[in-house]
Amino acid sequence: WPPYGNCYWIIIGGWGGYMTGIRKCETGKIPTAEDKYPKGPCGTLRSQKNHTNERVLDTSKWSHFTIRRTDNNILFYKVGDQNPMLNYTDEETSSFETKKIVVVSRKKIPGYWRVHDYDYSTTNKVFSEKIVGEEISTREKTFCASFFVAMCSKCRLTLEVLYFDGTVADYLPINQITISSKGDRLWQEERITAPLLGISAKVRLRASGACDECKNPFWSVDYFELCSENEIRVLTADSLDLTEVSCEVIKTSLQVSYTGLDNESPRESTCSNGRFGKACFSCSEIFGPNKFNCDKSTICEIEESSQNVCRCAKGYTGYACEDPCPHNTYGFKCQETCGYCSYPPCNIVTGYCSLSACLHGFGDPQCKLPPSPILQYPPVVLIINHTSIVVQLLNVSYDGNAVPIFYKIQYKTISQTEWNNSENIDFRDQLPFQIKHLEVLTSYLIRAVLITADNSSFEGVIVPYVNVTTTCEYIQMDRISIQTFNESALITFVSGEGSCPASLYRLGIDNQIITSNMLEFEILRLKPYRNYTARLFSIISDEFQLMLGFQTQEGAPERVDKLNASPIDESTLEISWNLPLVPNGRIRHYEVSYEHINYLGCYPDAKIPNNSSRRTLRESSNVTRLLNVIPYSQYRITVVPYTIMSGESATIDVDTLPSAMPNEAEVPSIKTIESQNTSIRIYMNRPHCTMIRGLLDYYVTFHCLNSWCPTQSPSTLNLTSISSNEPIALTDLLSYSNYTVSIDVGRKNGRMSKTTGMVAVVRTEPSVPNPIKDIVIFSKDESSISFRFLPPYPPTGILAEIFVSYCHEKPSRWSTTTVCESSYIPLQECTLWPSYLCITLKNLIVRTAYELEVRAKNIGTLFNQPTRIFATTVQEAPEAPQNVSAAWDDYYNLTLSWSHPSITNGPLTGFFIKIYAHNGICLEQSIAITEREYQLSYQYVVLVNDSCYASKLDIYVHSFNIMFSPGLHLTQSSPPKTPNIRPEPAISAIANDTVSVDIQGVSNLEDTVQMFIFVSSDSDEGPNQQIYPSELWRKAKIPRDLTTWMVADLNITTLKTSTKIFVIGDDRKSTSLHLQIEIHNKPLLASTNYVFTILIISAFDGLKRHNVYTLNATTIGSKMEEGSANYGLFALLLLLLVPVIWIGIW
């Protein structure tokens, strides 16, 4: 501040609020903070207005002012005033361009300002979707347009914001408002806003005017400009000190043109009663909304509503009727328009022009008498056709003094500036006149201009005219062609003379309305292969309507429905799908393509495809099978339906099944083996992931080979799909043990063995020995303790040494002290107890209790936990011998066996044996031994008195040092005496088929005796020897090369009650008493050598003794009956056979 440049300084309500003036200032002359008053000519008022009655500005209401500049003339009005408040003509300047408007409020009083250019446009015809103004470029996030509108009481104005940002094909509506009238001819301010994206875009405004049952419709729009959210500027200042002023420079608003309306009307002809000025403001808008009284009105009337209506007298208006009629008006309610006065305005009461000076030759005091006659009424329209209009002068009343001789018909469109003229027509000839070659659906202004004899006429704007719009011929079906595509259709009109333009029609289809300015309608976004019905209708007539049916062509089908893929086996996939939900035609075939996208044995993100497996099939049905796919892989299946064109593809990924059995290429091998004390880890060399055809099941069998292993049966571990870096872990194993590990692989459908590289023998590492168990103190005396134990079991390594600590309590006069000693003792096996370790602690204190702790360690390990035992150095008796047993041989020798006593408690000096029977002592015997003769087991043969045979014996065995141990008792039966036959058996008689044996001495046998008699021969045949127990053959000592059979099985009862002569060969049959087999004492053969064996067995409590007697005999020859004719021949044969037999025996 101050602004640079020349300016006109208008002060409103200055000088205490009672004067308004204008100054002309040059650059630098407007006062600054240092200058309280303007400088030079800038301080001169060029025009001023004193406000004697009231201040021109009031904080309680809005004040409306108009600045009008024409060339170098500046007029400043208060809206509603007829005369300007300021009228200044700058004689020094002919014309200039307004650059800026600067508004400042003074005296620290807030001022609210709205600055705008205004003028309004009006129309009295219904209009639809008129583009208002030019295209507007903007980058704002909000669009705002402000305007004043006045219209008839039943009229509506619809305003749309159209938006275009380059991402769509055309302008799109983003907001719409519909405005209804608030009273006939009442101006109202409206605005429309719409959200934008804040990017470079273009905006246009589109307006439509509608009215229901309107007789005189009209729409007027004023002050159409872009607005902001808050248009009011608040400015304060203190006197002329402008240093603290928050001053804003308000640029001229960007006005939106409204060329879409019918015409511009700077006149106030459309203001309603009670409104005035170029903006048609009401008194309440000027003086505030609370002043509704009419005290100063000059006329009051009572209308039909029975309400008092106050009106002003002629020539005056305003809320208090204090204002004269606005410019160019006069009369009651200021409804009359002044004539063509040369010096306007006219008288506000009478309408007379000043000095009766008229323009354009008009006469009379009001300058309303035209110089040439003017018809009072326009021509009457008789016929309206598509391209012609027939009019006629029916009322020829006219104003003016001259007599018309001719007239001519003039017509033009609203947009034309020049009138079209007909030929002069005789005023007396008032026949209908046809105006030809007009445009269809076009509004024409038609009037008649009167012509006098001197060929003069008046063609001013006051000549009455009629507004007529031509019609058009609606299209018929035979002039419509429909061309269809798969997603669109083109409807074309064949135009003729008088045909309605395409812009007259609307095409309704699927809830959308389509417009066109050409002779064709393009319908987009249709579905292929569908039946459609479109409704063609007119926007100006509800009577016209055509229904157009058509079917779109086949298009690309949508994707198939419910695509599914499932494996049938390891190399087959079954693909199925349903028809597309929207086929868009007839499906002719499907294209099924599949490709290998990954091996499932590889990592999911590896994506290693097998590009050679891509295939494409053509299928007519909706199911197919894909053969020879790679097992354990991922495939991508794509199905494309086809009509006359390819459709949308549907894709699904599917995993094939693993192969039933692994092949050699995918079987791993052992890479490395890591052994720890209780576990084994086996790392595998696995094949490349592309070789894997399924998850491998690992069947791991591991078997502990050592004798201490808890079980001899192998253990198994089954694993599935371990990762490439993860080893096979065998846990909970025994330390220092050999394991054989074999690995088989397979799948759920079977196991496959790999013979090379899949078997290994591994030893686990040593660990701390297990605790020592079962320590036995096997000897002690008054100065030493000897104990034995088995090495820790199972072994966990190679035992290295033993650590023994032994403690005893040493009493003193006042307390007891624990005294401990320890020693590392090398390993030493026991002499008597193999695999046991024996330790002797010597030089101990007599009769002292010791606590011993024994530990062991393996090579490379720590000592194990101690095992505690307690012992006292005192002499005690040894334990009895262990495991005493007795056995008899066939010669009545009794062999006694026993084990060395487990605990001897000092050097053992011998053993003592006692044997008792029911009838007395059978044996007492002492056996002395030395330490060198110590054995783990002892065996001695003793002879028992024969009086103790066939008896129950009690056997006691004692061990002793200086004391005897308890005797170990054993009960043992003694065998019976050997059975004898006295006298011995003898042959008492021989026949040709029998031999008699004398067994008289059987009376001396035991009651339990058994007797078996066998017959042996090298020429006779007997039963199979295998039916007899081998024990009998062994005891009878029968040669195996002879044929032998049993002929008798006798017990003592049978022998004692029967005859003592037994006949061999008497052909008797019996059942063996002991063997439960059949015995046949078959006849012997004549002249045959036989060996007879008698086996006698005596038994007592399972112990047996036996004796064998052997007899030899030869049967005699056969005797022939006397008188037989063949007797001599038989004897001859016998003589011939005998040498043969002897030769065979010998």
UniProtKB/TrEMBL annotation:
Signal peptide: none annotated. Residues 370-474, 556-659 form the Fibronectin type-III domain. It holds the Pfam family fn3. Keywords: Disulfide bond, Membrane, Repeat, Transmembrane, Transmembrane helix. The chain crosses the membrane at residues 1084-1103, 1124-1145. Gene3D superfamilies: Immunoglobulins, Tie2 ligand-binding domain superfamily. PANTHER family: FIBRONECTIN TYPE-III DOMAIN-CONTAINING PROTEIN, SUSHI DOMAIN-CONTAINING PROTEIN 1. The lineage of its organism: Eukaryota, Metazoa, Ecdysozoa, Arthropoda, Hexapoda. This is Fibronectin type-III domain-containing protein. The keyword Acetylation does not apply. The keyword Transmembrane applies.
